[in-house]
């Protein structure tokens, strides 16, 4: 099994792909398959959240590109910017991972949150798309090593 233990930020082009949904991109220990079908073991630093387009360095020297897999999501739209901000506030208050777009929010499918959002007057539509939520306020910079203040995205449903 091919081992992947580090991120790669150099100029080399990827020769393999690793397609994962967001739930799997938040796991630092994982067994998966490359696009070619080859089995890989992912052993990244704890707390690593992979993003679509990011590159990984395999132990044998190959560069692997992460692909954000399409998944079942809910797209939230509102009548105006105030109502959309209100919906975003209520989702943030529940520590839900949210992807922001021009005039919409996307969250992972959750019938309880869907009910809350429709109760707030939002239009909620099922979509299938890659999920790339905001990284959070402390994603870059404001961390104190070892104190637990590092970047986190809280997942609903025990993921």
TrEMBL record:
Keywords: Chaperone, Cytoplasm, Nickel. GO terms for molecular function: nickel cation binding; unfolded protein binding. InterPro entries: UreE, UreE_C_dom, UreE_N, UreE_N_sf. GO terms for cellular component: cytoplasm. One of its GO terms (biological process) is protein-containing complex assembly. Residues 3-64 form the UreE urease accessory N-terminal domain. The keyword Transmembrane does not apply. Its main location: cytoplasm. It is found in: Cytoplasm. Belongs to the UreE family. Involved in urease metallocenter assembly. Binds nickel. Probably functions as a nickel donor during metallocenter assembly. This is Urease accessory protein UreE. It comes from Parazoarcus communis SWub3 = DSM 12120. The gene is ureE.
């Amino acid at each position: 099994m091919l081992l992947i233990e580090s991120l790669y930020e150099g100029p080399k082009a990827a020769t393999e792909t690793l397609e994962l949904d967001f739930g799997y991109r938040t796991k630092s220990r994982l067994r998966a398959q490359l696009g070619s079908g080859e089995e890989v073991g992912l052993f990244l630093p704890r707390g690593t959240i992979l993003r679509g387009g990011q590159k990984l360095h395999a132990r044998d020297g190959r560069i692997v590109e992460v692909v954000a897999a399409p998944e079942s999501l809910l797209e939230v739209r509102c009548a105006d910017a105030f109502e959309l901000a209100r919906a975003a506030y209520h989702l943030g208050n529940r520590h839900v991972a949210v992807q922001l777009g021009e005039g919409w929010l996307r969250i992972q499918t959750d019938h309880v949150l869907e009910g809350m959002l429709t109760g707030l007057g939002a239009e909620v539509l099922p979509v299938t798309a890659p999920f790339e939520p905001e990284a959070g306020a402390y994603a870059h910079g404001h961390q104190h090593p070892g104190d637990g203040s590092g970047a986190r995205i809280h997942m609903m449903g025990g993921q």
